[in-house]
What we know:
Protein name: Right handed beta helix domain-containing protein
Keywords: Signal
Organism: Bartonella bovis 91-4
Mean pLDDT: 87
Helix content: under 10%
Signal peptide: 1-38
Largest sheet: 23 strands, parallel
Strand content: over 45%
Low-confidence stretches: 1-36
Amino acid sequence: MWVMVMRCVFKHHVYLCVVSTALMAGLALTSHTSKAYANQNCGSGSGAKTISDNVGPIVCDSGVTRTLNSSRGGDINIDMDEDMGSGEAAGAAVTVTGPGTNITIGKTLKVTGGLKGKPVIKVERGGALTLVEEVNVKGAGATIKKAIVVEGQGSSVTLNGKLTGFEGGEVKVSKGGTVVLGEGVEGIEGMKVKINDGGMVNMMGDVAFNNGEAGIKITGSRGNASVMGMGKTMTVTKGGGIQMDGDGGTASVVMLNIVGSGMGVDMQGTGTLNLTSVGISEFRVGVNAKNGTVNINGNSTITVTNSGTGIMVGSGATVKMMGGKD
């Protein structure tokens, strides 16, 4: 092992210190990665800012409220292979992190390039991001993780535009994060929406889900998951409506209309699922409870197709109805 000799001072006495180069490298790495979230292509100060139409990844860790627009008024083109930086932020097209960091991007995002397994959007540690227009990843690398990741209490992403090229990808909310599907999000094509270990999906408009699986999947063993329908309708063209897996955990679906043809609500996990003022219609099976507990409350309704089944209860499940109708 190589060593380095340095002058060290302890209580006004000078000694010779022997420090391994491995330790020095570790200290240097710690210093470097602590700056992994320095602002990059995010402007400065609060208020409305402009950035170049063609940029590398955007990283915002400013603790301020800021709106980003393109300098020429067109789309913002993000090359994920350009100046990626290092650490956790490397590879994501847009990273927003830290309490008080509230970023709105007012133009369409077009993403190219990308590292294997890296998400398109990453918001964590209490950051907030609003995407006003379309996010298009058709030009991104084949190995990129076509994902919008929202992690941690207080972290949120609000989507108001179309998601293009995300087939096979996912919107993933975890550990208390929130995703808002705004009125401009009319369809989720080929994508999964997943809540893991607690979090919220808030629907501000009617949304069609077309991914061949459950429209919204709830997983994990801890935390509270919520799907807030605000009286809106999720239409499932293929697959089921809402599926809950995992051991333990509590989930609530409130004021949501679920329309489709397969299975409306599928309870596979051992936790508790509360349905409050939920309308389930046109499915072959309204609620399938294989395990866990399903509570149907608050004037919820279940209407199935001819020869369909309103509620199926497995040997490991309990279903309680308080004010609901089937």
